[in-house]
Amino acid sequence: MQKILVARPIFPDVIERLKQYFNVDWNDGDVLEADEFTRRLADCDGALTAGDPVGAAVLAAAPRLRVVSNMAVGYNNFDMNAFNAANVLGTNTPDVLNESTADFGWALMMATARRIAESEHWLRAGHWQKWAYDGFLGTDVYGATLGIVGMGRIGQALARRARGFNMRVIYHNRSRVAPAIEAELNAQYVSKEALLQQADHVVLVLPYTKESHHTIGAAELALMKPTATLTNIARGGIVDDAALVDALRAKRIAAAGLDVYEGEPKLNPALLTVPNVVLTPHIASATESTRRAMANLAADNLIAALGVGPQAGHPPNPINPEVLGKARA
Ligand code: GLV
Hints:
Residues 107-284 form the D-isomer specific 2-hydroxyacid dehydrogenase NAD-binding domain. The chain contains twelve helices and twelve strands. By secondary structure, the protein is α/β, with parallel strands linked by helices. It folds into two domains: 3-95 and 288-323, Rossmann fold, CATH 3.40.50; 98-279, Rossmann fold. The protein has a seven-stranded parallel sheet with strand order 8-7-6-9-10-11-12, with helices on both faces. A five-stranded parallel sheet has the order 2-1-3-4-5, sandwiched between helices. Helix 5 crosses helix 7. The longest helix has 18 residues, at 288-305. The two termini are 22 Å apart. The structure holds glyoxylic acid. Residues 72-74, 97, 285 line the site of glyoxylic acid. Glyoxylic acid binds next to loops.
């Protein structure tokens, strides 16, 4: 039987599915340190990860490894050049999380615009003595301009929600989406600068790459309206968190909503001292049904890539399909 490492705790019934095909080493505890992760992969044919870094050194130490299945749509934890050089397949879990993630992006944007977390903390702290005409004044969402950076599947799901809020939708993306999609979403392509200048609510949903590192830093925050909000449901590192703290403190923008952070699960401690930011612990896809769908899709990818099960040889979500069928290098 082939051997796999499941590097993170996941639904036990998904582990049972995997056990039908594989000898499973399951880490049902804390996140593995890099050296232990590498050691436990050494005699494995496949692995199921969720954000664990996999690069050339890890692959070199695991000569049998043929596939790493990431339980996430983002795979910035994979060094794809190293995967390609070693003929190791990477897979991810797109699509099944689009709507839950867009729902959450919407919720975080609204909580940010309407100061829901900040006012709740104030209420819980016992400060509420009287109604005030100017208590927690926020920024309107209905009828406002939504700026989406990254118009992939989740960006498009966000844009669809904007119709019900009568919003103008502008977007920026590496490449313009097809005219038919722009028409369906009533979304207008603009430069990043124009988006930052015009949007009342900026939402980030782009993948994290070397090129997208610090897409939003001090210069970009300076372009935004002082009444605008910034929501990041993409990846830490897309926003320069230190620059964001400065902008929030100086009220150069009204507020921010963050689900992801540079260096998470550690975060810039200054963020905890700023009232006009809503902070959530990377939970945008976290509904029971979506996380189950992601875990099962990650298992489907692993099972198929290792040549067993009903889709043997045809994993549904190969990131680098060109290595399929090639001998491990
Ligand atoms: C979560 O962050 C994902 O990439 O799926």
